[in-house]
Amino acid sequence: MDFSQTQFHTIVGGQVGFAVPLIVAVTGHRDLVAEEIPAIRERVSKFLTDLRDEYPDRGVSVMSALAEGADQLVATEALRLGIPLIAPLPMERKLYIRDFETIKVQENFEFLSSRAAETYELPVTPGNTIESISEYGDARDQQYAQLGVFLCAHCHILLALWDGKDNDKLGGTGQVVRFHHDDVMPGYTPEATGSGLILADDESDLVYHIVCSRDRPDGQPAEGLEVGDYSWFSLDKDEPRSKTLPESHRRVFRFTSEFSKDAIRYSDKISDDAWPLMTKEDHAVLPVGLRDIDHVFRAADWLAIHYQKGMMFALKSTHFLAMLMGLMYIAYSDMLPMRIFLYAFLGFFVLATAIHTIGNRRSWHRKYLDYRTLAEGLRVQLYWAAAGVNSGSKTKYTHDTFLQTQDPDLGWIRNVMRVAGTECDASDYSAQAGLDFTLREWLGDADSGQLGYFRRKGEELERRHRRTEQMAKIVLWVGFAAISLFVLMSADLGELVRDPVVVLMGVMLLFVGVRQSYSFSIADAELIKQYEFMFRIFS
Questions:
Q1: Which helix (H) or strand (E) holds 157?
Q2: Residue 89: what are its φ and ψ, rounded to 5°?
Q3: What gap in Å lies between CA 470 and CA 265, rounded to an integer?
């Protein structure tokens, strides 16, 4: 199938192609001190350049609301460096532009927004209306609070041009930084809200803080901070501020970059062979943002299948070679003690070790599991978005609730999902067409969708598991019959058939043992239970 059009026209995180960019969101003060701007600009440029150089396989995109001051400064530097710009606006453009006090700032906003790769207008917050947010006051401030939450939820690094002071201004820089760390924004989040992640290691808390002052009375930085200072600022208990990227985040970024590198390497095959969740007919009636999720899903799904083939090759090969090693041992010890059998044994051992080593170095098993997990997370994310399902919280998105209790290293999967779902999360979609699509394609019936998939796979695994058990029973009874005949035979006849019977039993037991080991390695019994459970859920 030729889906090349999807590859070249789908923009994910401000970029085309299958790589998932590193997203830097901007929060900062509007009233920067003019004398400090050159140094701040230089530091921002150095920061973005270093990131781009360190992660060439995925690239960097900047997310900025293009407000006066810090937002426009960073956006300008990003464009100068050739870094894609994403512009989420807190409200409709015609309402937002009223917050720009001078013609020069408005013109700069218009210029920057015209150069943005993607621009979103966030929906009206729950309980408010277009009329209420048109007036200055709490309702309008709620839009800025929503913007701050959106930036935090859809970036990998929050770039804060900040004086370091906490304040009570709803949606202000101090509150956005606090929300990024603690998931708390007084006046917007419920009082009981805390970190949504059960794990101690939260990959979404990373702030790059550039200290600045403000052009107002008492505008100096917080005590202990100096203008021009910069640091990585996270929830690390031992070293919350550091000059180098914390290792836990570096590890997450490394896995995401590895996915992007693989996606780029196999981009042509993904374009030609990967199977999408949406057809061209679906594109015409469903939100455009779903294409982003589908685009990343195709890469993750194809790569999962690709590395599954490598993993299964290694698994089957090593088990087959183990069986051959056993046969060589039996042949040498019970048939003909020829050295060629020993050489063959060693050769099979070396070959099995080489295959196992190559599989480990290329991470076939880990990548298969990780990419399959990512693909299934994206599948759920797409169908939830199409059906208009949300997490039940105005401060949480689908990716925030995924894999909360799993290995912290899987945080990179949320990193990918937060980029793929950005455009969908920027809209408030709820239509019957999306719900019908989800029920038809995801739920399906006995022959289609997830219902049909789990039924078919469950039956397939059940048949394979049954064959393994039947084989073990056959060998058991054949062995019992052979030993019984051996006991009942005369001494002379028994001596004649003793060696062939022993060899036959050894070979049969070896074959069954390898078969059961293979079945255990691919977890047939456990998968049968899981597929039966999922089939009942979708039923």
A1: strand 157-162
A2: -100, 140
A3: 44
The two three-digit tokens of residue 84, written as one number: 């894609």
CB 51 within 8 A of CB 296: no
Token reading at 196: 């949504």
**304 touches 328 (CB < 8 A):** no
274: Cα within 13 Å, side-chain hemisphere = 28
**Cα–Cα dist 38/40, whole Å:** 5
Domain ranges of the chain: 20-259, 280-443, 444-539
Q: 509, 471 in Cβ contact below 8 A?
A: no
Cβ neighbors of 456 (< 8 A, separation 6 or more) are none
- 96 pLDDT more than 70: yes
Mapped to the 3 state alphabet, what secondary structure does 92-123 carry? CHHHHHHHCCCHHHHHHHHHHHHHCCEEEECC
Distance CA 530, CA 539 (A): 14
Whole-angstrom distance, CA of residue 176 vs CA of residue 151? 9
Identify the CATH class of 20-259. Answer: alpha beta
- Range of weakest confidence among 109-113, 187-191, 400-404: 400-404
Kindly report the number of other CB atoms within 10 A of residue 479's CB atom. Answer: 16
pLDDT 10s digits, 180-198 = 998 889 888 876 544 444 4
Residue with tokens 């900047």: 62
| Pairing verdict, β 157-162 and 118-121 | unpaired
What CA dihedral angle connects 377, 380, 381 and 385, to 10 degrees?
Answer: 180
Q: How far is CA 434 from CA 283, 379, 383, 427, in A?
A: 11, 14, 8, 14
Tokens standing for residue 279: 């057809």
